[in-house]
Design a protein that fits this description.
heterodimer, A: 388 residues, alpha/beta, 9-stranded mixed β-sheet, 12 helices, B: 124 residues, 5-stranded antiparallel β-sheet, 8 strands, 6% helix, 41% strand
């Protein structure tokens, strides 16, 4: 059984704020839910499935279902960090295909910007973690875990800091057209290399922003999608994977995208070269290079060459990516960038991206997320969508 | 180094570290080493696992010198040990600007703020 064509993304909404000190996390979740429901042309009473992750208050569905007074017959609180919301799209499509719900709401929200969160802090990830006593004293933080992946990539494949910088340069070219983007200034390779070294080899401008806000999606069965007035974005392939330290046989040279991408492309019956647009998780510049290789947009080790010289810039490059400015320049709400990856792909497929970055005849797009850390344990999730 | 709470079963590894020994998990059924130590072998799922002393030498698989994560510059690394498994650790007691992937290193020990001995590595 396949989910291909069994569900559509009918609503998408990104919160316009990047700093929201006076709003509660629950309020932000509810505001993005309202935005996505209205975007779809539905009402709250149409929602019978709800999906949220660890950013929801209490890290469960109870509080937000109660806050929004949802009447649900299906819910799912799968958490795999920033990739959760792409997994939710897949799980929502599966639930709809099995008749478990008709209209699924997915929400993400948080306020790490107001709360002073940073990728240079040791994160408290929960209680009873079996790995924590063997890791936390060494000071693993988000940025140095990804930095080790970049360092190994440079060692194995000759990837350079200039190539990493091109990812940020491309994102900044897109962000200049997004009035809500946190960083709207166009930067050069030199700007990235001259920004302060945070954790070798990652400079400040190799790192994503820390922002408040959030986003939401509505996934619905085909009969409902056909009644709505919005352009139709059909889900045609999904894949999810977890990769970890493999009992101590650590291999930082590839990510779970190798598995999630293959599953999604096989289900969709398309190839990487068919994609007109790609949203690629960009917590750091190295994240993009790794995922492009593992998804099959280029050979392993050639990601640095692939992204160089503006190849990811819409209008001039071969693979337009993150045309909202991505996590590197626009938004990385709740330190989880998967939601905004799907939202920008939906904008592209609807023809509603900013005219300066809209891909012509964008009928096939991919969104990919990574959650947790490529440096120790992460979730990978791929969603392929087609405009009907 | 900051402290974290241990789980039941962890104490033996850290007691050995306090005595200057680096231990790895070793399975009595399939013979594979693993890290971090756990109650069931992550390869064959046997419960015949015990701690075995590692040789304490290996090479740096990857590393990063964190220059702006807290008041002290420090080097996080994965060290691949001779037994074939890698552990997350720190590289210490050397000029951090000279650290390289492939560099031979040997184990030494540093205490956390709370006095728990942690295996770390220094150039061999």
């Amino acid at each position: 059984m396949s989910i291909k064509g069994k569900a559509y993304i009918v609503g998408a909404y990104e919160h316009p704020l990047r700093k929201a000190p006076d709003k509660s996390v629950a309020q932000l979740h509810a505001e993005v839910a309202k935005g996505a429901i209205e975007d779809a042309g539905l009402t709250k009473d149409d929602i019978d499935g709800y999906f949220c992750a660890g950013d929801a208050p209490g890290a469960n569905a109870f509080s937000m279902a109660n806050y929004m007074n949802l009447k649900l017959r299906h819910f799912d609180t799968t958490d795999c960090g920033g990739s959760s919301y792409l997994v939710h799209v897949g799980h929502a499509a599966e639930a709809i295909a099995l008749g478990k719900c008709n209209v699924a709401l997915i929400t993400l929200a948080g306020r790490p910007n107001s709360e002073g969160s940073s990728g240079t802090q040791v994160r408290e990830r929960g209680s009873y973690l079996p790995d924590a006593p063997y890791e936390i004293p060494y000071g693993p933080v988000t940025v140095n875990l990804y930095a080790m992946v970049a360092m190994r990539h440079m060692y194995e494949y000759g990837t350079t800091s200039e190539q990493l910088a091109w990812v940020k340069v491309a994102a900044s070219h897109h962000a200049q057209h997004n009035p809500n983007a946190m960083l709207k200034n166009v930067v050069t390779v030199e700007d990235v290399l001259n920004s302060p070294m945070i954790s070798d080899p990652l400079h400040r401008l190799d790192c994503c922003v820390v922002s408040d806000g959030g986003g939401a999606l509505i996934v619905a069965r085909p009969e409902i999608a056909k009644q709505l007035k919005r352009p139709k974005v059909k889900i045609i392939g999904v894949g999810e994977a977890l990769k970890h330290q493999m009992g101590g046989k650590v291999d930082l040279s590839y990510s779970g995208a190798r598995w999630s991408g293959k599953r999604a492309f096989e289900e969709a019956g398309v190839k990487p070269a068919d994609m007109k647009y790609a949203s690629i998780y960009d917590s750091f510049t190295i994240t993009v290079i790794m995922q492009l290789e593992d998804l099959g947009f280029c050979k392993k080790g050639e990601g640095g060459k692939f992204v160089a010289d503006g190849n990811l810039i819409s209008g001039s490059g071969k693979l337009p990516f993150n045309t909202d400015g991505g996590g590197l320049c626009n938004n990385h709400p709740a330190n989880r960038g998967g939601m905004t990856k799907v939202i920008e792909a939906v904008r592209q497929l609807r023809g509603e991206a900013h005219p300066k970055v809209q891909v012509k005849n964008c009928d096939l797009a991919l969104a990919h997320g990574t959650g947790g850390s490529l440096g120790h344990r992460h979730g990978s999730s791929t969603v392929i969508m087609e405009r009907e | 180094m900051r402290d974290t709470s241990l789980n039941p079963g962890d104490q033996q590894y850290f007691d050995a570290a306090a005595a200057g020994k680096l231990m790895l998990g070793k399975c009595g059924a399939c013979g594979e080493h693993h890290h971090y130590p756990r109650a069931l072998c992550p390869f064959c799922f046997s419960d015949k696992v015990q701690l075995a002393q590692a040789k304490g030498t290996g090479e740096i698989y990857s590393y990063s010198v964190s220059r702006r994560a807290g008041p002290v510059v420090y080097c996080i690394a994965y060290v691949k040990m001779e037994e074939g498994v890698s552990m997350l650790t720190n590289i210490v007691d050397c000029d951090l600007d000279t650290v390289k992937i492939g560099q031979k290193v040997k184990v030494t020990f540093k205490n956390t703020e709370g006095g728990v001995a942690m295996p770390v590595f220094t150039p061999a």
